[in-house]
Structures are given as C-alpha cells and as structure tokens.
Amino acid sequence: MGVGTILAYSLLVLCIIGTILVILSDEDGDTGKRVAWIIVVVVLPVVGILCYIVFGLNPRFNSRYGEYSRRLYESFRELSDERAFRKLFGEANKTRIREGYRELSVLLSHSNGTTVTDNNTVEIITSGRRKFDALVQDLENARNHIHMEYFYFRKDDGSRRIREILMRKAREGVKVRFIHENIANIDISPRYYNEMKKAGVEVVKFTKPRINLLRFSATLNYRDHRKIVVIDGKIGYTGGMNIGDDYFVRWRDTHMRITGNAVYALQYSFLYSFLTSGGAAPQSFKELFPDTDSGQKRNELVQIVPDQPNDRWPVIQMGAVWTVQHSRKYVYIQTPYFVPPEPLLQALKSAALKGADVRIMIPRKTDHLYMDLANKAYYSGCLEAGVRIFEKKGSFIHSKTIVSDDYLSVIGSANMDYRSLSLNYEINAYIFNEATAVGNREIFIGDLAECDEITMDSWARRPWYLKLAQAVMRLFAPLL
Question: Is 233 helix (H, G, I), strand (E, B) or coil?
Fold first, then answer.
C-alpha cells in the first residue's frame, strides 16, 4: 500500500470521525435520526458524508437566519398601525382560551411571536371541488391584492384555471405576489412562470442556490410545504390542499377558508416567505392589513403557527406533543405519513396507556411506495400501547388534522413525520372552539366508514418479509 493510499484512507477516517462528532453535537436532533445518520456515514462513508452535508445539517443554531424574522418584525412595527400590531402580537385574547390550554398558546407563540386572534369565522373544507369553487370566486372578487404560496402548483386543468385568473387580475391592476417551491416543482418549465411575470405577477422562488454551505444545504433539503392564500387582507386559505387536480378531484383532504383577524397572521407569514425569497418589500403594510372587524362578533379563537427549520424551536412538533399528552378523553389524528419523531411517538403511547381514546387514520396506500413501509413500521408499539389505527380505503387521504376533547382542532400542512416536524417550512392553525372541534370529530368519525381497523392479532400475522422490510425502513425513517 503506497503512501498516497495511506494518506487517502487516513483522511477518510478523519472525515468520518469529524462528521460523527458533528452529528453527536446536534443536541436538538432526535436520537433515532442521529443513529441513522451515523450508520449511513459508517457504511457508505463518501456518499454518507456528502448526504449529511446536503440533507443533515441542523440550521437551528445559526443566528443569521433569525435576522430575517427580526427585520420583518421591525418593518411591520414601523410601517403598520397600532391596531394591526396589537391584533398580531397582543396578549388580550389568551385569557379567553380555556384555562388548561393557555400554556399551549404561549408555547406556540415562540414560532414568530404572533398570538391567538379573535373574531374569526372558519369554514372547514373536506371537498376539493368546494375549495376550488370558493377559491375561484374569491380570486375573481379580489380588488387590492392576491398573495399565494404553495408547495405544489401544477400544470393540470384546475391549476391552469387558477393561473389564468392570477394573470388576468394582475393585468387589471390587482397586486399579485406568488411564491412557488422550487425543488418540488422542478419538472415545471421556467416558461410557465415567465408567462405569469409578463402578465404582471410578481413571482419568486422560495429556495435559491447559496454559496454558504449551510444555506446550500437548506436550498436542497428544506421545502416550503405551506399552502397559503390571502385575498385583500380579509380572506385566507390554508390547510392540506395544494393547487392541482389530485387535490381538487381525486384525493380526500382538509382545508380552511378563514375570515377575521387570523388572516393577519397568514399575511404576516406569507410576507416572511416572500421577503426571504427575494421579493420586494411593500412600501406600506397598512393596505395589507385592513380592518377586519365587523358588526357581527364571531366566536372562533385561532392561532396561526408557522414553523421553519431556521427557528430555534420546532414549535409544531412541540405543539403536537403537548396536545397528545394533555388529551384527557380523546385525540383523533389524520395524516398521510406516519413517521413520528420519538417524543411524539412516546406521547401517543402514554396517552393511550393512561386511558385516552387515541386514534390515528392513515391511508392504506400512500402516493409513495417506500412510505407504505415507513408508515407501518410504527404500528406494533402503538397497537401494544392501545393506540387504535385505521387504514382508509379508496381515495388517498391527504388530511393533516388533530382534534382533541371537543375543544382543540389543529388543521394545517404538517404531516406526522420527521420532514414536516423538523425540516420543512410548515403552517398549522390551532382553533380553540367547542363547536369547531365537535364538527371535526364528526368528520373523523364519518371517514371511519371507509376504514379498516388494524388489530394486534391481524398485525402479528403479517408475512415475515414485511416484518423485516418494515424493521429496516424504521431504522432509516428519520432520513425520509
């Protein structure tokens, strides 16, 4: 063995040791995730180290990312009025939340500082056709501005119809700002967006290449998984549905149409994404945050909670853990992908063991083959603890919802998996309202008619090769 070969091997060993030390130093990282990365780096050193640099670096310790949030806050404080600032950051509404849930609102405020809002009306939408029709009508009625941010914005029939409206409204003088996730829509030609730009739509990519290593990693790994529409600062949409015919026609999903002060929080989150993606800052915030109060007082208290990997705390994951842990009677969850981080997995088991009715609804088949194995890799421990698992037949269920104890509802973009709870830019709405929670519970129960329950006995009888495949998939689930 020559000197050059020895030096090469020595350098590789040092790189392996150095990468492992970096992985171990990530105090915020899930233990399972760290173990998975160490295995990959040791078994496939060169590929593993490169993959970790691209996909594994944790930006939550990087204070540079916090500058974007601080700049937006300072600009909003300066350019908006006191009324708008109070509605977004005031504390008065927290006292209206049921006492046992106030601490949850405080926890969730650690995302971008925004608080719970009052005077809201929320329409829960479970039909893709209803979302499409309502959105089209609201877009047609826009007079001042349209803001749109989506993970997927496809090129099929429904998507083209929405795109045509955006272009026409821009030509009519409505300010249209549009954010598209770059990597997720990489199969769409730039011409598709250039035509929108020519019509006057201000289009920005959410992720752009960076020279800085950490930012380059973020460009390739972190996805803008949010779904946000804000129309004239008065109407907002968010939830699980993207723009595409899968969501409008074929899949079962859950979305929301919101009017009231919660639209302010959707607007604020959109502006964060828009400005950090290179969009031009508005000269004034006042027209973007019009007075949303009406003569009719509405009951729903809503807290809009954005989460991004550059925040110090993974608040959506923490909020999910809190909700499950504090459920007394029941907690019902719908998610297309069930790959829970360890804290959430233990919370689910603990809730079931203490006697709460814990139910999880998952699609029988997902839109990705490997996720079928990953979803099922967590069944055994959950079933043993008393968690009830239901697989929905028929149309793929893409809903991301939680409802608990006839009071708290959570609807948004975040799946119950590592990517959504640690890596993606997500947004969830927490609704503190009895009637809304009862309605969401009834939606869940209605969906059970299309489900098969997985029992411990039937699950134990699955073929040995599936047991092996699921065990292997669970080992690498934190990297999915």
Answer: coil
Structure confidence by residue, pLDDT tens digits, 157-195: 999 999 999 999 999 999 999 999 887 788 888 899 999
Between CA 203 and CA 193 the distance in angstroms is 7
Cβ-defined contacts of 342-349 (< 8 Å, 24+): 342/30, 342/31, 342/32, 343/30, 343/317, 344/317, 344/320, 344/416, 344/421, 345/378, 345/381, 345/382, 347/320, 347/321, 348/324, 348/382, 348/385, 348/387, 349/381, 349/382, 349/385, 349/387
Do 315-479 and 63-307 have the same topology in CATH?
yes
Give dist(CA 135, CA 237) in Å, integer.
Answer: 8
Q: How far from each other are the two terminal CA atoms of the chain, in whole angstroms?
A: 39
Fold of 315-479: Endonuclease; Chain A (3.30.870)
Q: In the block, which residue shows the tokens 């954005």?
A: 306
DSSP code at position 234? T
pLDDT of residue 319 exceeding 70: yes
For residue 432 the two structure tokens come to 């503190």
Domain boundaries, the chain: 3-56, 63-307, 315-479
d(CA 56, CA 42): 15
* Tens of pLDDT, residues 274-307: 988 888 888 778 889 888 766 556 678 999 999 9
Which token pair is 107?
């926890």
Helix (H, G, I), strand (E, B) or coil at 14: helix
Fold of 63-307: Endonuclease; Chain A (3.30.870)
Angle at 219 between CA 253 and CA 192, to 5 degrees: 65
Residue 112, C-beta contacts closer than 8 angstroms, at least 6 positions apart: 69, 268, 269, 272, 306, 311
Show the tokens assigned to 19.
Answer: 């990468």
What pTM did the predictor assign?
0.87
Assess contact for 85 and 227: CB atoms under 8 A: no
